[in-house]
Design a protein that fits this description.
Layout (H helix, E strand, L loop, with lengths): L5 E6 L3 H12 L4 E5 L24 H15 L2 E4 L2 E7 L2 E6 L2 E10 L4 E2 L7 H4 L4 E2 L2 H4 L7 E5 L3 H11 L4 E6 L8 H8 L4 E5 L1 E7 L6 E6 L5 E5 L2 E4 L3 E2 L30 E3 L11 H22 L1
Parallel strand pairs: 1-2, 1-6, 2-3, 6-17, 8-15, 9-10, 9-15, 10-11
Antiparallel strand pairs: 4-5, 5-6, 7-16, 12-13, 13-14
Helix pairs in contact: 1-2, 1-7, 5-6
The structure holds NADP nicotinamide-adenine-dinucleotide phosphate (NAP).
Length: 307
């Protein structure tokens, strides 16, 4: 193989990317881990992780920090920046970040997914002015105030539980009458006396001049709308992929996820996709870390067979 800057470049320092870094360095490879925001990915938005095997309870931030320290401690290099291009030059892959290019024998894309928006009137304008996509980051601003959470998955249920501990009232707004999230979380939420369930409802407008003042909530299958005064709105309606920048090098599926199976191999030899950014049916912390290990070991074996 040609001389390169690193054995493996990992794009994205969420649970998957950081696990890949740990497995990569432990296999004797030089690793560059690149992250656009803060390390940790989605898990830093989870107040308490209670379903990771072997760990009864840990905050998402602590979990991410442990992974980061472990990867760095073992010798992975970490860089902050946005990857704008990956170029396949055969046995060498060229990764462009912050207007510089770095070469590697293999690349692992582990960029996760970004928050889905509701796409309703006022959402864009009031984001950061009462509208948020992260209850653990912004929840504290709404102590003793009235807030609402939109969504029916684990994130929405966890967010509502977290907020119910210190907000005055928490509305949970979901477009169906059953939740996608875990039953246990729903039961904990139903036991709270400051949580109001608005089911079969959708948010049709977010209102406010300088800051969020109210939302219009409509029956899903009816015409009745009501105005609800709130100070904070937490949107937790899932994620969407953010892989367009890689579409020159790897094939995307019809939803925009990177087409890769359980072996994390993409159509481009030497390029792997791990975690929520790839086509998969279960997107959990456990499956993200599992992918990180699979992708790293796949990349190591690819490098070993080529050298
Ligand atoms: P999710 O499970 O995909 O749930 C998204 C929710 O938003 C669904 O209830 C969906 O409704 C609703 N929704 C989607 N688009 C909407 C729209 N335009 N308007 C209104 N509602 C909309 O997303 P998530 O809760 O972020 O979780 C993502 C993954 O991470 C899941 O696999 C989840 O289990 C996992 N997760 C795990 C943990 C943990 O293990 N501790 C914590 C958080 C998340 P429908 O149900 O009607 O489709």
């Amino acid at each position: 193989m040609n001389k390169v800057d690193y054995d493996i470049i990992i794009v994205g320092a969420g649970a998957s990317g950081m696990t890949a870094a740990i497995y990569g360095v432990r296999s004797g490879k030089s690793i560059l881990l690149i992250e656009e925001k803060m390390y940790g990915g989605q898990i830093i938005n989870t107040p308490q992780v209670e379903n990771y095997p072997g760990i009864e309870n840990i905050s998402g931030t602590s979990f991410a920090t442990n992974l980061y320290n472990q990867a760095k401690g073992l010798g992975a290099e970490y860089m902050n920046g946005k990857v704008t291009k990956i170029k396949d030059c055969g046995n060498t892959k060229k990764v462009t970040v912050n207007n510089n290019s770095y070469t590697a024998k293999s690349v692992i894309i582990a960029t996760g997914a970004k928050n889905r928006t509701l796409n309703v009137l006022g959402e864009k304008e009031l984001t950061g002015k009462g509208v948020s996509y992260c209850a653990t980051c912004d929840g504290m601003f709404f102590r003793n105030r009235d807030v609402a959470v939109v969504g029916g998955g684990n994130t929405a249920l966890e967010d509502a539980l977290f907020l119910s501990d210190y907000c005055n009232k928490v509305y949970i707004i979901h477009r169906r009458d059953t939740f996608r999230g875990e039953k246990q979380l729903e039961e904990s939420l139903r036991a709270k006396d400051n949580v109001v369930f608005l089911l079969n409802r959708v948010v049709e407008e977010i209102q406010g001049e300088e800051a969020l003042e109210s939302i219009m909530v409509k029956e899903k299958d009816g015409d009745k709308s009501e105005k609800i005064s709130i100070n904070g709105l937490f949107i937790a309606v899932g994620q969407v992929p953010d892989n367009d920048v890689f579409s020159n090098v790897v094939k995307l599926d019809e939803y925009g996820y990177i087409a890769a199976g359980e072996d994390c191999k993409t159509n481009c030899e030497g390029v792997y996709a791990a975690g929520d950014c790839r086509t998969k049916s279960v997107r959990q912390l456990t499956t993200a870390t599992s992918d990180g290990a699979v992708a790293a070991l796949g990349a190591c074996s690819y490098i070993n067979t080529k050298s």
